[in-house]
Protein backbone atom coordinates (compact mmCIF):
# COMPACT_ATOMS: atom_id res chain seq x y z
CA UNK A 1 0.00 0.00 0.00
CA UNK A 2 1.50 3.32 -0.98
CA UNK A 3 1.49 6.42 1.21
CA UNK A 4 -1.36 8.20 -0.58
CA UNK A 5 -3.72 5.24 -0.14
CA UNK A 6 -2.72 4.86 3.49
CA UNK A 7 -3.38 8.55 4.21
CA UNK A 8 -6.76 8.32 2.49
CA UNK A 9 -7.63 5.26 4.59
CA UNK A 10 -6.64 7.00 7.83
CA UNK A 11 -8.66 10.08 6.87
CA UNK A 12 -11.71 7.97 6.00
CA UNK A 13 -11.57 6.11 9.31
CA UNK A 14 -11.21 9.38 11.24
CA UNK A 15 -14.21 10.88 9.45
CA UNK A 16 -16.25 7.75 10.17
CA UNK A 17 -15.40 7.93 13.89
CA UNK A 18 -16.28 11.63 13.96
CA UNK A 19 -19.68 11.02 12.34
CA UNK A 20 -20.41 8.13 14.70
CA UNK A 21 -19.78 10.34 17.72
CA UNK A 22 -21.73 13.30 16.30
CA UNK A 23 -24.79 11.22 15.38
CA UNK A 24 -25.42 10.63 19.07
CA UNK A 25 -24.94 14.26 20.15
CA UNK A 26 -26.92 17.44 19.64
CA UNK A 27 -26.29 20.69 21.44
CA UNK A 28 -29.36 22.48 22.79
CA UNK A 29 -29.65 25.79 24.66
CA UNK A 30 -30.14 23.87 27.92
CA UNK A 31 -27.37 21.35 27.22
CA UNK A 32 -24.85 22.64 24.65
CA UNK A 33 -22.23 20.49 22.96
CA UNK A 34 -18.63 20.90 24.19
CA UNK A 35 -16.63 20.39 20.99
CA UNK A 36 -12.89 19.75 21.22
CA UNK A 37 -10.34 20.30 18.48
CA UNK A 38 -6.79 19.11 19.04
CA UNK A 39 -3.82 20.13 16.94
CA UNK A 40 -0.20 19.25 17.55
CA UNK A 41 0.56 22.56 19.28
CA UNK A 42 -2.79 23.70 20.70
CA UNK A 43 -6.18 22.56 21.95
CA UNK A 44 -9.48 24.37 21.47
CA UNK A 45 -12.86 23.93 23.17
CA UNK A 46 -16.17 25.58 22.42
CA UNK A 47 -19.76 25.15 23.54
CA UNK A 48 -22.18 25.08 20.65
CA UNK A 49 -25.95 25.40 20.44
CA UNK A 50 -26.72 23.28 17.38
CA UNK A 51 -30.32 24.52 17.11
CA UNK A 52 -29.17 28.04 16.22
CA UNK A 53 -25.63 27.18 15.11
CA UNK A 54 -24.02 29.58 17.56
CA UNK A 55 -20.98 29.33 19.78
CA UNK A 56 -21.88 30.20 23.36
CA UNK A 57 -18.48 29.92 25.07
CA UNK A 58 -14.96 29.22 23.79
CA UNK A 59 -11.45 28.79 25.17
CA UNK A 60 -8.12 27.65 23.78
CA UNK A 61 -4.41 27.66 24.43
CA UNK A 62 -4.28 30.69 22.13
CA UNK A 63 -6.11 32.84 24.72
CA UNK A 64 -3.80 35.41 26.35
CA UNK A 65 -4.63 34.30 29.90
CA UNK A 66 -3.74 30.69 29.06
CA UNK A 67 -0.64 31.64 27.05
CA UNK A 68 0.69 33.54 30.07
CA UNK A 69 0.45 30.42 32.26
CA UNK A 70 1.73 27.67 29.96
CA UNK A 71 4.86 27.50 27.88
CA UNK A 72 3.59 24.92 25.37
CA UNK A 73 -0.04 24.39 24.40
CA UNK A 74 0.22 20.79 23.21
CA UNK A 75 0.38 18.94 26.52
CA UNK A 76 -2.03 17.69 29.19
CA UNK A 77 -1.33 20.57 31.57
CA UNK A 78 -2.39 23.10 28.95
CA UNK A 79 -5.47 21.03 28.10
CA UNK A 80 -6.50 20.93 31.76
CA UNK A 81 -6.11 24.70 31.98
CA UNK A 82 -8.35 25.14 28.93
CA UNK A 83 -10.91 22.77 30.47
CA UNK A 84 -11.05 24.81 33.67
CA UNK A 85 -11.27 28.07 31.71
CA UNK A 86 -14.11 26.91 29.46
CA UNK A 87 -15.98 25.60 32.51
CA UNK A 88 -15.60 28.92 34.34
CA UNK A 89 -16.83 30.83 31.29
CA UNK A 90 -19.76 28.43 30.93
CA UNK A 91 -20.74 28.85 34.59
CA UNK A 92 -20.73 32.65 34.11
CA UNK A 93 -23.00 32.20 31.07
CA UNK A 94 -25.37 30.06 33.16
CA UNK A 95 -24.44 26.70 31.63
CA UNK A 96 -23.88 23.74 33.94
CA UNK A 97 -24.88 20.68 31.86
CA UNK A 98 -23.20 19.76 28.58
CA UNK A 99 -22.69 16.88 26.18
CA UNK A 100 -19.07 16.13 25.30
CA UNK A 101 -18.04 15.90 21.63
CA UNK A 102 -14.60 14.34 21.40
CA UNK A 103 -14.73 14.28 17.57
CA UNK A 104 -12.61 11.46 16.20
CA UNK A 105 -10.16 11.53 19.11
CA UNK A 106 -9.91 8.79 21.69
CA UNK A 107 -10.95 9.74 25.21
CA UNK A 108 -7.32 9.70 26.25
CA UNK A 109 -4.47 12.08 26.98
CA UNK A 110 -5.19 15.73 26.31
CA UNK A 111 -8.87 15.21 25.47
CA UNK A 112 -9.46 13.33 28.73
CA UNK A 113 -7.47 15.93 30.70
CA UNK A 114 -9.65 18.73 29.30
CA UNK A 115 -12.86 16.84 30.12
CA UNK A 116 -11.71 15.93 33.63
CA UNK A 117 -10.73 19.54 34.41
CA UNK A 118 -14.11 20.77 33.13
CA UNK A 119 -15.87 18.25 35.37
CA UNK A 120 -13.83 19.29 38.39
CA UNK A 121 -14.67 22.95 37.66
CA UNK A 122 -18.38 22.15 37.96
CA UNK A 123 -19.73 21.03 34.58
CA UNK A 124 -21.97 17.98 34.44
CA UNK A 125 -21.55 15.67 31.45
Descriptive notes:
By secondary structure, this protein is α+β, with helices and mostly antiparallel strands. The protein has one domain (3-120): 2-Layer Sandwich (Nucleotidyltransferase, domain 5), CATH 3.30.420.100. 42% of the residues lie in helices and 18% in strands. The chain contains 4 helices and 4 strands. The protein has helices spanning 3-23, 64-67, 76-92, 110-120; strands at 33-38, 43-49, 54-60, 99-101. Strands 3-2-1-4 form a 4-stranded mixed sheet. The radius of gyration is 15 Å and the shape is globular. The termini are far apart.
Percent of residues in helices comes to 40-55%
Number of domains: 1
User: Mean of the pLDDT scores?
Assistant: 94
Continuous helix count: 4
The CATH architecture classification is 2-Layer Sandwich
Order of helices and strands: HEEEHHEH
Low-confidence stretches: none
Chain-wise SSE layout:
Blueprint: H1 3-23, E1 33-38, E2 43-49, E3 54-60, H2 64-67, H3 76-92, E4 99-101, H4 110-120
Parallel strand pairs: 1-4
Antiparallel strand pairs: 1-2, 2-3
Helix pairs in contact: 3-4
Quick gist of this model?
The protein is α+β, with helices and mostly antiparallel strands.
Q: Can you tag this structure with a few keywords?
A:
4 strands, alpha+beta, Nucleotidyltransferase, domain 5, 4 helices, four-stranded mixed sheet, globular, 125 residues
